[in-house]
Automatic annotation (TrEMBL), chain A:
InterPro entries: CBFA_NFYB_domain, DNA_Pol-Epsilon_Subunit, Histone-fold
GO molecular function: chromatin DNA binding; protein heterodimerization activity
Role played: Accessory component of the DNA polymerase epsilon complex. Participates in DNA repair and in chromosomal DNA replication. Forms a complex with CHRAC1 and binds naked DNA, which is then incorporated into chromatin, aided by the nucleosome-remodeling activity of ISWI/SNF2H and ACF1. Does not enhance nucleosome sliding activity of the ACF-5 ISWI chromatin remodeling complex.
Acidic residues compositional bias, start-end: 121-136
Listed GO CC annotations: CHRAC; epsilon DNA polymerase complex
UniProt KW keywords: Acetylation, Coiled coil, DNA-binding, Nucleus, Phosphoprotein
Protein name: DNA polymerase epsilon subunit 3
From TrEMBL, chain B:
Keywords, in A-Z order: Acetylation, Coiled coil, DNA-binding, Nucleotidyltransferase, Nucleus, Phosphoprotein, Transferase
GO biological process: chromatin remodeling; DNA-templated DNA replication
Localization: Nucleus
CDD domains: HFD_CHRAC1-like (cd22924)
Name assigned to this protein: Chromatin accessibility complex protein 1
Gene3D superfamilies in alphabetical order: Histone, subunit A
Subunit structure: Heterodimer with POLE3; binds to DNA. Component of the CHRAC ISWI chromatin remodeling complex at least composed of SMARCA5/SNF2H, BAZ1A/ACF1, CHRAC1 and POLE3; the complex preferentially binds DNA through the CHRAC1-POLE3 heterodimer and possesses ATP-dependent nucleosome-remodeling activity. Within the complex, the heterodimer with POLE3 interacts with SMARCA5/SNF2H; the interaction is direct and enhances nucleosome sliding activity by the SMARCA5/SNF2H and BAZ1A/ACF1 interaction. Within the complex, the heterodimer with POLE3 interacts with BAZ1A/ACF1; the interactions are direct.
Signal peptide: none
Listed PANTHER family: CHROMATIN ACCESSIBILITY COMPLEX PROTEIN 1, HISTONE-LIKE TRANSCRIPTION FACTOR CCAAT-RELATED
Organism: Patella caerulea
Assigned GO CC terms: CHRAC
GO molecular function, one term: protein heterodimerization activity
Length: 170, 113
C-alpha cells in the first residue's frame, strides 16, 4: 500500500530514458515537461487500472487479467497499443513457461541423479544445472566408495567418515 | 556509458503495482495484467512525448510544457490529463476568468432571489 504520496510517482530517471527513446537525439526535454509526463504516466496507470477493473467486475472476477488490460486499452481509445502489448505478453508467457520447465527439469534431474548416479544427457541443461549434477554425482560416487571398502579415509563425506572412525577404533 | 547500465529501461513493476492498488475497488491483479499495464505505460509515455513534439508549433529542438498542455487539451483521448497538465495562462487572463465567474455567480444569485 502507498504510505507516502511520492510512492505513487514513477522514478524520474526511468521515465526520462523512456522519453529519450521516443524522440530524436538532441531534442531537449524541459524539466517541467518531464515532470508533467511522469505525472501523466501515473494517472494513466490509474485510469487503465480503473478501466481494466471494470472489465473484470463485469465478468464477475476479482482478479484483473491481461485480457482486461487489453480491453481497457480499446476502451480508452489507445488501440495502437494493443498489438505491441499482445507481442509483449506472448514473450512474457514464453519466458514464464521456460522458467517453469527449467525448474521442473532441475527437480527431475535431482531425483534421477539421486537414484542412479547422474544420467544427464539433456541438451538444454544450463550451466548451474550441470554444476549441480556434477556435485551430486561426486557425492553419490563417494558414498558408494565408502560402502565398498570402509578402510579408506573419506574426509568430505560425513556418513563415510563416521563409519571409518568406527572401523579404526575396532 | 555506466549511467545507462545502471538505470533499467523498464518501469519498476513493484511501483506500478502500488499505483494500481491505490485505485479503489481493485482487489487483485494477475502477474500478466501487471506486466501488460507496465508495458502500456511505457508505450503511453513514448506516444505522449512523440505526438507533443510532432505537433509542436514552436522550437522542434525542445519539448516544453506548453507543447504537452496543447496536445492534452486538443486530443480527445488525452482528456483525462486535462487537470494534470492544464494550459498555462497569464495572470491577467486569470483575473478575467475570476471576474467572469463572479459575475456569473451574481447573476445566478439574482435569478434565484
Amino acid at each position: 500500500m502507498a504510505e507516502r504520496p511520492e510512492d505513487l510517482n514513477l522514478p524520474n530517471a526511468v521515465v526520462t530514458r523512456i522519453i529519450k527513446e521516443a524522440i530524436p537525439d538532441g531534442v531537449n526535454v524541459s524539466k517541467e515537461a518531464r515532470l508533467a509526463i511522469s505525472k501523466a504516466a501515473s494517472v494513466f496507470v490509474l485510469y487503465a487500472t480503473s478501466c481494466s477493473n471494470n472489465f473484470a467486475l463485469k465478468a464477475k472476477r476479482k482478479t484483473i487479467n491481461a485480457a482486461d488490460v487489453i480491453s481497457a486499452m480499446e476502451d480508452m481509445e489507445f488501440e495502437q497499443f494493443v498489438e505491441p502489448l499482445q507481442e509483449c505478453l506472448e514473450a512474457f508467457r514464453n519466458e514464464q513457461k521456460g522458467k517453469r520447465e527449467a525448474s521442473q527439469q532441475r527437480k527431475k534431474d535431482r531425483e534421477q541423479s539421486g537414484n542412479s548416479a547422474g544420467d544427464s544427457t539433456l541438451e538444454d541443461s544450463n550451466i548451474d544445472l550441470t554444476a549441480e549434477d556434477a556435485d551430486e554425482e561426486k557425492s553419490a560416487a563417494v558414498q558408494g566408495a565408502g560402502d565398498a571398502d570402509s578402510d579408506v579415509m573419506i574426509i568430505n563425506d560425513d556418513s563415510g567418515s563416521s563409519v571409518d572412525n568406527g572401523a579404526e577404533e575396532g | 556509458m555506466a549511467d545507462k547500465e545502471r538505470v533499467p529501461n523498464t518501469l519498476p513493476l513493484s511501483r506500478v503495482k502500488t499505483i494500481m492498488k491505490s485505485s479503489p475497488d481493485v482487489s487483485s491483479i494477475s502477474q500478466e495484467a501487471l506486466h501488460a499495464t507496465g508495458k502500456a505505460t511505457e508505450l503511453f509515455i513514448q506516444a505522449l512525448a512523440k505526438v507533443s513534439l510532432e505537433k509542436s508549433k514552436s522550437d522542434q529542438t525542445e519539448l516544453s510544457y506548453n507543447d504537452l498542455a496543447e496536445i492534452v487539451n486538443s486530443e480527445e483521448t488525452l482528456q483525462f490529463l486535462q487537470d494534470i497538465i492544464p494550459r498555462k495562462i497569464k495572470m491577467s487572463e486569470y483575473y478575467d476568468l475570476i471576474k467572469e465567474e463572479e459575475e456569473e455567480d451574481e447573476e445566478n444569485e439574482e435569478d434565484g432571489s
